[in-house]
Amino acid sequence: MTKSIGSSPSASNERPETPMSDFLDRLANLSAKRLALLAAQQHDEIEATRQRACEPIAIIGVGCRFPGGADDPARFWSMLEQGVDGVCEVPADRWSIDAWFDPDPDRPGRMSARAGGFLSGVDQFDPAFFGIAPREALSMDPQQRMLLEVSWEALERAGIAPDSLHGSATGVFVGICNSDHFHRLLQRGSESIDAYLASGSAHSVAAGRISYTLGLQGPALSIDTACSSSLVALHQACRSLRSGESSLALAGGVNLMSSPETTIALSKAHMLAPDGRCKTFDATADGFSRGEGCGMLVLKRLGDAQASGDRILALIRGSAVNQDGRSGGLTVPNGPAQEAVIRAALKDGGLSADAIDYVEAHGTGTSLGDPIEVKALAGAYGAGRRIDDPLWVGSVKTNIGHLESAAGVAGVIKVVLALQQEQLPPHLHFREPSPHIDWERYPVRVAAQGRPWPRGSRLRRAGVSSFGFSGTNAHLILEEAPAGVDVAGPDRRSMHCLPLSARSGPALAALCDAAAGALSAECPPRFADAAGTFGAGRAHFTERLAVVATDAAVATEALTAAAAGREHASLHRGTAVPGSAPEVVFLFTGQGAQYPGMARALYDGTAVFRDIVDQADRQLGADADGLTLKRVLFDADGGTRIHETRWTQPALFAVEYGLARLWMSWGIEPAAVIGHSVGEYVAACVAGVFDFKAGLDLVAERGRLMGALPPGGAMAAVFAGEDVIAAAIGPLADRLSIAAVNGPDNVVVSGSQDAVDALLAILAARDIQGQRLFISIAAHSPLVVPALEPMRLCASRVAMAAPRLPVAWNLTGGKPLVGGAPDADYWTRH
Q: What's the rounded Cα separation, in Å, for the pair 528 and 495?
């Protein structure tokens, strides 16, 4: 009986065709071995996905501007280590504190604090450096300007040239909550509003402008959760990196106080400490101190950072964000929520509570917030801890005030530096523990005097907390960087080039002075490392200077001279024309330039060149006498064998190709190539006509065939025109010919030794200079006829492609080849 049209599947024994049924049918047809293999593959894929989701994030660069003159990480650490209080009276360039101050916090229109953590020089900005018009810069929020500067510095400290990131999936995550500048502009009146007010003040543009300036194409997010903004930004950056959305991330925050209104409002809420200091966890804690600053971190997935050879400063192992929900009040801290966010960060990092040594607390220094936070820390981290082996806590707010949307990243940078320096810095203004905190019950202690924090068998880890008065809480878990590995090996170069550049002469002089100071510091970097970082880890501008020196001492002398406007033998200056990068042509010489020990210093000092020569040595192997390419090039027992054509030609090919790859590894790419005689094989290889292996085989066979020719040949370079030489050759034409025309007054002749010597004597009598070449064959003359057919056979076995770069071909006078690519006939005629 047939099934009627439209009947349901249940009316038949047939199983309906669905994707799942098809899948099950295919599984049923697999062997047990194949099923086991498929299961193993799926398990590996799931495990790889799981590992990516919790992969540690490497911090590879730091930039900062913090109160107390801490304009870079080194100055910031010096300030922390020495226990410096960076809080000061409100600067006159912000507002007149005498006009706005009243000790009574309830006095209308007045603020109850005279001090805070302020930056100097926030009005200083070089808009031309970032391609910003001066008129636009006037309307830009200084927070945007600071973010540009600090992001640039963070990338350079990571050894990443900022302009190299154009088009990359680099994300930007910025914490920002302050709008003082926007309100100041509005106070000028609506007639003062210009086209730049919106973009210059919008929080979204704070992140977007960084991406625009550097050409970054990853996500760009500005995040406002009040005091937790920058830590939330770091959390989002970690999520973006782990998901693969971003390959690199800039994350941090900024805060700047341009006008008094917010400080007045916080005074009315009785949140500010009258003396302008955060006395966190102390009995005198009576409010927080407002602060300003900017911090940016450069982040990568750990595996990517290790693969790139980046210097890893610390790791982010875990992070979490949550919300207070309906607590005791909109701005009142919620202890259980704080404890929950810490537990979530530990879970994200796969860590237990006892794995943490220290917590950089939110620690604002309020009589309400401090006890709640310590109780939450004890609840989350206290399990299994003894009172005599406590969790140590501190707060950078005691040094620089509460940086609000930049507070979290300031704490992170403090911990990163502490991990590097193996020391917890002092926590200021802690004289008598707060009576509102049950210190005897909680295994938590304040690192008031600082304490050693050395590397050991146990990995050092720390938590960092930020709690926004919006109710959004964030917590990060940091871990010490993996033990460093010196991948560079010993420094074997005899000379190094340290390039510096700037957009103006004065800026270049200032950079020279700073570089000289760094090289002569108490713990300076290796000169080789400094040269490499300045060359590859910084953008290069129009005003340029290079120091070529043997060591840091000579370089420091040269840089000091450059800063003072003096000359020095190691200095080389120049100016690059914007938008007109010079086109470089690579020229590869022919036989006659070889000598014993050729390129030994390059082989010893540069890995790229060494790899090429090693590859050629392995490919060629040893001859019947046991000689190898490297022995011929470098060993004393190679003697003058380098001048034997069978060795000369492959040696030149390997050395010249290695030189080309070395230049290209430094970013010097040829716009076109040209080669003379055997050098044209290198030119063709660099242009992509054939690969290195095929090119070396061709040249080795060429050298073997030419080396097997009967002895008695010679070549010479003569410095006269082609017509003059052709006429002089006349009576010697049966034994001598013009081999190459190198220029209007530079001709190479080739033939028998007696004919070459006779021609040189004739020319010398006419006061025309000539010189025998160091070669024992008559290349490019009729004497090489016996080698032609074997050469054609060898070349016919090599696949050749049209060149990717222009090649000035020898046989056409530089013109392109018909058909684009050379063939066996070309190399035979060559």
A: 9
Residues 655-698: pLDDT tens digits? 999 999 999 988 889 999 999 889 999 999 999 999 999 999 99
Residues 305 and 293: their CA atoms lie apart, in Å, by 28
Instruction: Report how far residue 92's alpha carbon sits from residue 618's, in angstroms, rounded to the nearest whole number.
Output: 72
CB atoms within 10 A of CB 744: 9
Residue holding tokens 């940086």? 403
Instruction: Tell whether pTM > 0.90.
Output: no
- The share of the chain scoring above pLDDT 90, in percent, equals 70
Cα 669 to Cα 582: distance, rounded to the nearest angstrom? 10
Res. 5 pLDDT band, cuts 50 70 90: very low
417: number of CA atoms within 13 Å, CB side? Answer: 24
Q: Report the distance separating Cα 438 and Cα 37, nearest Å.
A: 59
Residue linked to tokens 């349901």: 8
Give the span between the Cα atoms of 403 and 175, in whole angstroms.
11
Can you tell me the mean pLDDT for 506-525?
A: 90
Q: Using 50, 70 and 90 to split pLDDT, how confident is the model at 635?
A: confident
Beta-strand pair 248-255/170-175: parallel
**Angle at CA of residue 541, ends 538 and 545, nearest 5°:** 85
- What local confidence, expressed as pLDDT, does residue 4 receive? 41
Structure-token pair, residue 22: 């098809």
CA atoms within 13 A of residue 79's CA, in its CB half-sphere = 22
Q: Give, to the nearest 10 degrees, the angle between helix 407-421 and helix 229-243.
A: 70
Rounded-to-integer distance, Cα 175 and Cα 221, Å: 9
> Containing H/E element for 93?
none
Task: Classify residue 67 as exposed, middle or buried by CB count within 10 Å of its CB (0-12, 13-18, 19+).
Answer: buried
SS (H, E, C) 400-449: HCECHHHHHHHHHHHHHHHHHHCEECCCCCCCCECCCCCCCCCCEEECCC
CB 254 within 8 A of CB 147: yes
Write down the pLDDT at residue 641. 87
* 3-state SS assignment for residue 664: helix
Residues 6+ apart with CB under 8 A from 63: 72, 73, 149, 150, 151, 152, 153, 154, 155, 157, 252, 294, 295, 296
Predicted pLDDT at 195: 80
Report phi then psi at 119, rounded to 5: -95, 155
Indicate the helix (H) or strand (E) that contains 226: none
Contact in structure between 587 and 675 (CB atoms under 8 Å)? yes
Q: Give the residue carrying structure tokens 């595996």.
A: 303
Average pLDDT over the chain, rounded to whole? 90
Does 402 have pLDDT greater than 90? yes
Predicted local confidence at residue 442, as pLDDT: 95
- Say which residue the tokens 């040209």 belong to: 674
Q: Is residue 37 over pLDDT 80?
A: no
Residue 402 CB contacts under 8 Å (≥ 6 apart), including other chains: 117, 227, 278, 288, 289, 290, 291, 364
With a cut of 90, say whether residue 175 has pLDDT above it.
yes
Contact 413, 295 (CB under 8 A): yes
Which residues have C-beta within 8 Å of that of residue 688, sequence separation ≥ 6? 801, 803, 804, 805
Minimum mean pLDDT range among 4-18, 272-286, 775-789, 811-825: 4-18
Q: Using CA atoms, how far apart are residues 38 and 51, in angstroms rounded to an integer? A: 20
Q: What is the C-alpha to C-alpha distance for residues 345 and 213, in angstroms, rounded to an integer?
A: 34
Burial of 32 (0-12, 13-18, 19+ CB in 10 A): exposed
Q: How confident is the model at residue 3 (pLDDT cuts 50, 70, 90)?
A: very low
Identify the pLDDT of residue 493. Answer: 74
Side-chain half-sphere CA neighbours of 360 within 13 A: 32
